Amino acid sequence: MSIDWWTLGLQAVNLLVLVWILARFLFRPVARILAERREAAAAVLADAEAARAAAEAARQEAEAETAALKARREALLAEAREAAGREAEALRAEARAGIGRERAEAEAQIARLRESGQEEAAGAAAALAADIARRLMGRLPDSARAAGFAAGLAEALADLPEATRAGLGVAAPLRIRAARALSEEERRDLRDRLAAVLERPVTLDVAEDPSLLAGLELEAPGAVVRNHLKADLGRIASELARHG
Questions:
Q1: Across the strands, what pairs with 175?
Q2: Scanning 112, 129, 174, 185, which has its CA 20 to 30 A from the CA of 77?
Q3: Beta-bridge partners for 219
Q4: Digit-coded pLDDT (tens) for 109-138
Q5: What does the longest C-alpha to C-alpha distance in the chain come to?
Q6: 231-242: per-residue pLDDT in tens?
Q7: What is the CA radius of gyration of the chain?
Q8: Which helix (H) or strand (E) holds 204?
Q9: Do residues 198 and 133 touch, judged by C-beta distance below 8 A?
């Protein structure tokens, strides 16, 4: 067996030329393309991660702002309710003081009339005192004509016999008369207070009745619960007439 060194040498040269051609025109371009694609993919991933981080930061910031706004809203509502309660109580105290002054004046005049034997005039004085008190109540601002009366109505309802309370609001909504239209928050507060007294959920049928002057009245079969100034003035007038 003999080796043709010329043929072997030429084949080796051909192989080297082929490897050089492949390395120059195939391997290097392919490696460059792969490197460029890896860089592009890394850039896309980096942009996506940055966008995700920005979105997460924006979400957290929005949640924080929402929580802060909610807390601020609750604080403002609580402050407004407290201020409204203080104002209503001050107005009621002023109204009660005015009624007390009018009553004291009427009683003083009744005493004077009684001393002079003018019993008929004393009755007229009692009616006049009640009328003056009604006009005084008519000067209350609209906001004070219902605010703060829900608690008194619930207390009066709790004083009813248990047998009477057991049938209230079962077959039909509780009928409520109010001196002015109640806001949704006032309706909810009144419903919650009455439900707490009756120990069960209730629904309300609220009607506006300006003749009550200020306050609320609950009407039900066999029971009427009053917590309004019209009833108070009626009792004052009756008391003055009786003493007259």
A1: 205, 219
A2: 174
A3: 175, 224
A4: 767 766 665 556 555 655 665 566 567 666
A5: 166
A6: 877 777 666 666
A7: 44
A8: strand 204-208
A9: no
